[in-house]
Amino acid sequence: MRGLAKPAYPAGAAQARPQSQSTGGLCRNQNRLIFVDDDDIYRNIVKAELADEGFFVLDFASGEEMLESLRTGAEADIAILDWGLEKTDGIDLLPAMREVGVDLPVVFLTGRCSPVHERLAFQRGAVDFIDKSRGTEILARRLRLIVHNKRQAPAADEFFQCGRLILKPKAGRAYWGDVDLNLTISEFRIVHLIASRVGDHVPYRQIYDAMHYAGFVAGTGEEGYRTNVRSAIKRIRNKFRECDPTFDLITNYTGFGYCWGKRAG
């Protein structure tokens, strides 16, 4: 079995395997993956080995390069991230992907295999956490299983409607009647959360987690995140009121959170 732990590279190792398999045209039904690792030689070796396993690989030396490629139309079925990237660590890159609307399954391929790292990866939304020493065959099997399960999952509803509000989760678009509200990804998540729970009081912390991910910490003090939530709600209300000055469906419950629906009485 081929191991993935970083070897002592011989001269010319990056050219030791043919590269055309991973850089040529995409075959029908071929699994497409993104691979981010800042070790050029190691990345090229793994890329070539995954190409031998039938994957079409888009590889990047940094998270910034990967995000820019996704913004300009690159597509994939799954992403593999190294933990210790030079500019932005993989663990911080994952939420950055979500912030720009990229919802690919993410696998960490790393030598940092402590329970602490693994637990944090899953908390941030990773679907798998694989030690680099496990080998390409095991990695490929697990990647295929993740992609298969993703494709077999029931399709999300095409839209969600609550009164005049129409949400299109796949596109991340929100409409008030026929007017696009131009919500950001975070704003869309907030509206989707509270509108899907009409009449329920949604706590500040839960709204903040929807903006980022569970356990994200920001702001001053133990509950400083409330300021961020209030600011986001203010922006959202303003966007609704630009197209409907009478909008009043996001109500505040002081010290607790927000609710979709007019306050009783």
Report the CATH superfamily of the largest domain. Answer: Response regulator
Overall outline: elongated
Overall tally of structural domains: 2
**Beta fraction:** 15-25%
* CATH fold name of the largest domain: Rossmann fold
- Portion in helices: 25-40%
Q: Which terms summarize this structure?
A:
265 residues, alpha/beta, Rossmann fold, Arc Repressor Mutant, subunit A, five-stranded parallel sheet, four-stranded antiparallel sheet, 18% strand
Sum this structure up briefly.
By secondary structure, the protein is of the alpha/beta class.
What does this structure look like?
With about 260 residues, the chain is an alpha/beta fold. The chain folds into 2 domains: about 15-150, Rossmann fold (3-Layer(aba) Sandwich), CATH 3.40.50; about 160-260, Winged helix-like DNA-binding domain superfamily/Winged helix DNA-binding domain (Arc Repressor Mutant, subunit A). It is built from 9 helices and 12 strands. It has helices at about 20-25, 40-50, 65-70, 90-100, 115-125, 135-150, 185-195, 205-210, 225-245, and strands at about 30-35, 55-60, 80, 105-110, 130, 160, 165-170, 175, 180, 200-205, 250-255, 255-260. The strands form 3 sheets. The protein has a 5-stranded parallel β-sheet, sandwiched between helices. Strands 6-7-8-9 form a 4-stranded antiparallel β-sheet, covered by helices on one side. β7 and β8 form a beta hairpin. The longest helix is centred in the C-terminal third of the chain and has 19 residues, at about 225-245. It is elongated and about 60 Å long.
